[in-house]
Amino acid sequence: MTQTFAVTLTIPDNEAFTAFETLARLGIPVARVVRADIWLFVVDAPAGDLTATISSIETIHNPNKHRLLARDSDRPAPGEVWIASRDEARVTLVGGRAIPGVRAIRRRTAWRLLDDSGRDIAPADLERAVETFLCNPAFQVAITA
Amino acid sequence: MTGTVAVLVFPGTNSEDETLRAVRAVGLEGELVHWSQPEKLARFDAYILPGGFAYEDRIRAGAVAAHDALMDPVIEAAQAGKYVLGICNGAQILAEAGLVPGTGPLRRPTAAFAPNASGRFQSVHVHVRLAVDPGRVPILAGIEPGAVIPAWASHGDGRLAAPEAELARIERDGHLAFVYCDRDGNPVAAPNGSALSCAGLVNAEGNVLAVMPHPERDAWTFQHLDATRDAVRGNTEETLAPSGGIVFFEAFARAVLAEAIA
Predict the structure, then answer these.
(1) pTM given for the model
(2) How many separate domains does chain A show?
(3) Where are the domains positioned within chain B?
(4) For B162, which of A14, A134, A138 is closest by C-beta distance?
(5) Which range of residues forms the domain containing residue A29?
(6) Active site includes B34?
(7) Which CATH class is domain B4-261?
(8) How many CB pairs under 8 A join A and B?
(9) pLDDT tens-digit map of B155-178
């Protein structure tokens, strides 16, 4: 089974702002960009203390600037797109150390594009954002809900 | 008559000075052009995108710069047949801009210099072998076919990645400009896991070239891998002699000057 976590910045997200500026230049009707690092942990059994374990690994979560949130699903939420590498290597270590009970670790970048009402932009606009900028199909894949 | 070369500087570019020095050393008139000055670009004969981390490699290496306003006149110039050279981060930008291999629409990349197979930034001295017919690529004309050039590979995202069909097209249609090799030109595995052992790509017209390793960082003896050994041997007077990678810039200069005169 997989346990999923989203890590967001509590300080200004410069990468999201840069993405916003480029998307606006491309004519995507976006008012705000929200980005999150998604960590998928493949585990043998539900690991009750996994949240506590990974919240102490600064490679994943630095409490001075990150917020860690457990997700219910290993799929994107509606309106969200995840970008993944097509040929990601099997990773079992993070920050040079293994996590007990974790067989594999996968990473995604989650993007959510909002309009000036705070709603998700239209699916066609999100698709255009993905095709023109957020995903390089030569080595990445976009995953939607 | 001198050829004029713009060396582009994005926020995060860090190899502009050594690139400019190599450009001037081979007789070209070089000038740094910053990201806020796209209007200056049209008057140049050729363009170099140097190494670094444009826009901190945010989103993907080269992706933001490829969509920057500074790239609009460069893309226009490339389409008009002017010479465009990208080194390291510049190569990543050219791939994201769709200028190399140039097999798809502009700014819709068909290939990428993706994260190294090791998952780490790597800095290692390498040799690359000319893998394309230099007669087809004016920027490389004058370099012996199969010539070996020393350089420093210094990147976290230098692995050529593309779908199998695109890799086959890159190989079949002569887009593979340089491959990693040993000092004698024998094939070696790419240090970054690059497909086809690719160290550089060129477009079909031969006027846009992207190379991942840095020839400008092995252009003088003091930069060479053996510099320390040479210094110990008392050859310090030789340390400023042109060496290795300068061959690359000499070929670039010949092409630019020939075009400027024409």
Answers:
(1) 0.95
(2) 1
(3) 4-261
(4) A138
(5) 2-144
(6) no
(7) alpha beta
(8) 56
(9) 999 999 999 999 999 999 999 999
